[in-house]
């Protein structure tokens, strides 16, 4: 089995190699990150000043919808699957993923699916315009014709996610090297095992939701139509039963990434490994019983409001345990602040900010004020961008030397970090205030009183957006001109198995499993 | 299969590069594109469209790809490339696939529960004061829902007159429902026979499995054949029931939420029965024509039988929540 990669483009089309597939996932997600980011730039350009500026409101709705869909399903999720593909076999000492051909299929479904979805921008009636949460009846009775294409695209993405997750579960359960017991697995592997379980549990529910939409639109059913005895609120229940675990699907692997990076750059073992595992599992369990906190203002019975409020607040307990563990890991460590560590620390700090605003939103009576305001937008961008994308940036800088065998430019990496950090906070921190003052989300125009906050936001967004081009440039330059690292163990404090193989990692690794003590 | 064999690590078979995934992707993309354009085309049949052709071509292409994919894995297994560890990966894969199917049905059962216990009573005014005197005056909730809220306010025109802007079609309830007809009419009640057929098929499937474990091919083939036959009988009975519902009872997808949930739940179940029957038929043909499977090596059959038992369990829940309760 000592063969290398095939020559030419067919290498990528026909590959069964987890590193090739991981690389494709990562490049694809970066492309989607830039696409979804350009939609965000259009949104922020429109909102730079009050009044209708650049785009018409119908197109603005398409932009907010496509920005959300592309970022969640095209950028963040595939990026973490790419990391899983690259790193899980290396971290558990496996020769590859458990089901390599299916692995390739999981990836190759995504590019054509997103091409089809993006092509709906040029369809008659435009792209989906009902928000990434596609509430009925906006997405049924009042939907543009492209909704059918959207529904089948979601099905295809779901198939990809389910197969990818089954593969990850089979790999972790079945392919660990001798001696690699569950409680010795790196935390990134643990978080992915639990994430994969969440995906297999909720992607089919999303498939159910879009199937009900399809039937309501085209075949006369009345799931979401009160005239026939159904209920539009039913859509929200089905959607958020998927949607809430979905946001943890996005954040748990990010927790895994920082749990790898912080110990390495603090040169101390992770504090409270066991509690990290149990906290992750608790968060996953709670994610199934809190979905209606997205629906406080829809007219839930009082008992429902109370149950979902208290259940939601419970999530703060395991999450806080994680934050304390990361901080305690750093305590009295000999810390160095390379780029991955900077992003990891920023992720912990800013995600905690997002967690606090989440706690505010969890309070049902207070949420009646915050609901559907820019406060919500600020909250989930602190968790999605700072929580997930900062962790992804950290992961790329951390593992890039292992992937390419070359070191990225540290000064450029740090510049990227600081511009990102400032740009991100300038974008989203003012949105808290705009939201609390009453600015609604998903609108192309706003009251004069929000003008200053919005201009700050837009400037911040342009700064954050352009800093990602620096990121791209640094990655490409590392591949073409980077200084070879000439060492297996690139980072001084690294302990996990991927740092025992050469850099760059050979095409096939661990064809005979290592002995883990 | 108990646990993992560590010796298997050295021989875990990582396949060479393969075109299967790309071929499957091409099929899937044709299905996605064809199905969505074909369905859109249904509402404007006067415009020419080749979407239906692309959909069918995609389905055929996909079926052929799946056939060669499974043929490849079977060939690899016969050639002895599959270690115990790799076989265990397939077992895990199938188990979690069935779990994902469970969650798919859970979405529809959950919708049924919500409509029957919350949305229905609320529409009739429970819980929220007398809101329904403003929205749907005269609507009374019962299950099965024989009169939709729209009918209660005088059909589509009544609904529009009452100022309800959202209108996505006419929903009129059925004349009869298919729920439990009382003890005296039990024997004419098709769902009961469906239940008997499907439960029996689960049993015969198990007997076939026992036969295979005893290396008794005759017994295996016989009982597996009977299982496939029972699966086909179920599909025919279900077809008869649909015919009865549509033609005699006026029950269709647009009969309001009772018809909606009835056809979607039984329809998806019926579709899974057809898939399960095809899976078992393939195993039957593998055994009768190629002599595949023995007491040690039987994953193809085992996976199909798990799937079959799963479909059976879904039916038990359907029988309970769609027909009886």
Task: Please describe what this structure looks like.
The complex is a heterodimer of chains A (517) and B (325). By secondary structure, chain A is mostly helical. Chain A has one domain: Up-down Bundle (Cytochrome C Oxidase, Chain A), CATH 1.20.210.10. Chain A has helices at residues 10-14, 18-46, 57-92, 100-119, 147-174, 187-218, 232-266, 273-287, 302-314, 316-330, 339-362, 364-370, 374-404, 410-436, 451-481; strands spanning 406-407, 483-484. Chain B is built from 10 helices and no strands. The longest helix of chain B has 40 residues, at 84-123. At the A-B interface, helix 1, helix 4, helix 5, helix 6 and helix 7 of A face helix 1, helix 3 and helix 9 of B. Chain B: It is an enzyme of class 7 (translocase). Chain B: Residues 8-325 form the Heme-copper oxidase subunit III family profile domain. Chain B: It is found in: Membrane.
Short characterization:
With 517 residues, chain A is an all-alpha fold. Chain A has 15 helices and 2 strands.
Helix-strand blueprint:
The complex is a heterodimer of chains A (517) and B (325).
Chain A: H1 10-14, H2 18-46, H3 57-92, H4 100-119, H5 147-174, H6 187-218, H7 232-266, H8 273-287, H9 302-314, H10 316-330, H11 339-362, H12 364-370, H13 374-404, E1 406-407, H14 410-436, H15 451-481, E2 483-484
Antiparallel strand pairs in A: 1-2
Chain B: H1 20-42, H2 51-78, H3 84-123, H4 132-135, H5 149-152, H6 155-161, H7 190-213, H8 217-248, H9 257-290, H10 299-324
Helix pairs in contact in B: 1-2, 3-9, 3-10, 7-8, 7-10, 8-9, 9-10
